[in-house]
Specification:
Length: 221
Amino acid sequence: MKRSDQEAITELLLSDPEEALACVRELRSADGKDLDLLAFEAECVAETGDFRRALELWGRYVEQDPDYLTAYAERCRIFVELGELEAAAAEANLCDELFGGQAATAYSRAFLMEARGDYSAADKLFAAAGDLEDGYEAPPRLAKSAVKRALIDALDGVATVKVFPMPRTAGDEGMGRAFDLDPDSGVTVYQRNVERSLDADADPAEFAAVIGELWSSVQAD
């Protein structure tokens, strides 16, 4: 796989997962044996919200390369998205058995602990992941009251703004979704999921900006 293709797909994944997926599939049509492309397809598919298909693709990957840590960590994360927390724990345990304590596993397991509501354990795992490897910094932890004030300012005209740590169920968009629309023309924002997308030194205004951008795209649709 060309480095330029890899960089292009990585950039597209951040801005337009659907376009990234189309790019990967075009490249795979020319070289269906490239495992890097299979991994990218699994990542893209997960980002578009097709979690079952992503699990299938990662399963095909590990059949050909059972020594790829990221595949197991991603499967753990996807099981959490689906709300299948016992399956996620089993995948994380398998990852630890095969590779020992690794940052990717600790980070995925932290997401699992958040979904279970054990926020203290989650924060310890995020910190452990950061200690193990650069690039796995612990998310910021912002005051809920400050986050809510920033959201009310950013979402001018929204009837009600509620802030909860995490969803109670996976819903249609997974446990990792940023917000839900309420029947009363309001929005419920899931603070922990948004914080995971922020730099460690982010402030409430940056938090609100993420939701504001997502909100604008929903309104445009």
